[in-house]
Amino acid sequence: MNGKNVFAVIMALAVITSTVAAVNATPSNLPALLGSSVRVSRATFYEPYPIGPGSAFDFWVRVDNPNNAGGTTIRNVECKVEPHYPFYSADPADDMTRFVGTLEPTQQALLKFKLRADGNAANGNNNIWFSCKTSDAGWVRVELAAYIKARDAVLDLQSVNLEPSELTPGGNGKMAFTLKNKANSPLSNIVLKLDLSSTTLPVSPVGSGGYANLPRMQAGEETTTTFELLVSPSADSGVYKIPVSLTYEDDLGTRYSSNSTAAVVVYSQPDTMASLERSDLLRAGAKSNAVIAITNKGLSDIKRLYATIRDGEGYSLLQPPSTYLGDIDSNDFQTIEATLFINTSESHIRVPVEYTFLDAFNRQHTKTEVVSMRVYSAQEITALQLEQATGGTNTIIIVIIALVAAYLLYRKFIKKKRLVEQK
């Protein structure tokens, strides 16, 4: 090495020592003497500090001839960084070997390398393998410490998937959580927990107890853990929020936690029915009233029910056919009344009923059902004594009214007679 190069190396060493060492120097021990000649400073310099897993960094090493002036000159000095986990060359074309040449007594040289830390490198001090040889000695290695620390220990909850997307009361399903390690280093002691303790949550875990343990995830790794859930048979339709907690540690033992929520959708398909509640005696050529019931047989309530009775064969509608019925609770019903004029000799008429309503999620449903009603002929009415029963009732009512009227007239007559006799 000529004088100009030696001077440049010494000046560079002075600059770096004054500007870098204060920021990112690993605590130094005594210099390492490689063989019986070249001395290597353990005060390593690298930038940036700390080194992030998976990131590139500049690394400087200072070597010198420890002999005093007038001492032995060291010739054919050659040094290198050996590829060894977790440090490798950042440039595949660089074999990380540097030829120093001759070192005069007390002369120094500063060697620079561009290295990269492995993406799964552990946090903390890791060793760089550095070796030198001379014309008088073969390769001798020293291990130089470099500090690695992930900048962001982030375990991200990427997605939550519910299968099926809507659970039914009394049914079960699976909730899958996808996690991704976005840190530049491994994470460990990972616990994902569902808080299902609230009495307002109609879901329970099956088999897992509501938590999952993951021993370790490498940097960039993605994994999915699944919980099986059972829905209470009495659950109302709705969206239920489950608190989710996530705890984990980095390689330095630092503990992290995060909280979020996951939604479970419980939905019971509406189940309704239109039927004849009651009616007058239906016969051809006569006007009759019929009451139609719309029943909610489902497990959840329905609301904003609007019903319309349509015209059909064999009858005519004699009043406005549409009615707003409002809300119907589960296992309840509402009625709509129709006045019909029967103009058929057939034994039945089929009356279409169309109605619309909203379910628990405000989804609109429209349904049309046909309600069958019995029409009686004159012969059937006589044979079955249908009208006689009705007529007998009317006769009794008329007789009662007549007796009451007769009694009132009789009292009035007796009262007038007494007044005449007193005069």
What does it look like?
- The chain has helices spanning 3-19, 21-24, 378-383, 386-422, and strands at residues 32-34, 38-40, 45-47, 56-64, 74-82, 87-89, 97-103, 108-117, 124-133, 140-148, 155-163, 172-181, 187-194, 203-206, 211-217, 222-231, 238-249, 255-266, 272-279, 287-296, 302-309, 315-317, 322-328, 332-342, 348-358, 364-374.
- The protein is α+β, with helices and mostly antiparallel strands and 423 residues long.
- A hairpin with a 5-residue loop joins β17 (238-249) and β18.
- The chain is rod-shaped, with a radius of gyration of 48 Å.
- 25% of the residues are buried.
Arithmetic mean pLDDT: 84
3D shape: rod-shaped
Secondary structure tally, helices: 4
Q: Regarding quaternary structure, how should these chains be classified?
A: single chain
Number of strands: 26
How big a fraction of the residues is strand? over 45%
C-alpha Rg, in Å?
Answer: 48 Å
What distance lies between the first and last C-alpha atoms, to the nearest angstrom?
165 Å
Largest sheet: 6 strands, antiparallel
Low-confidence stretches: 1-28
Query: How do the helices and strands follow one another from N- to C-terminus?
Result: HHEEEEEEEEEEEEEEEEEEEEEEEEEEHH
Helical proportion? Answer: 10-25%
Q: Structural class, please? A: alpha+beta
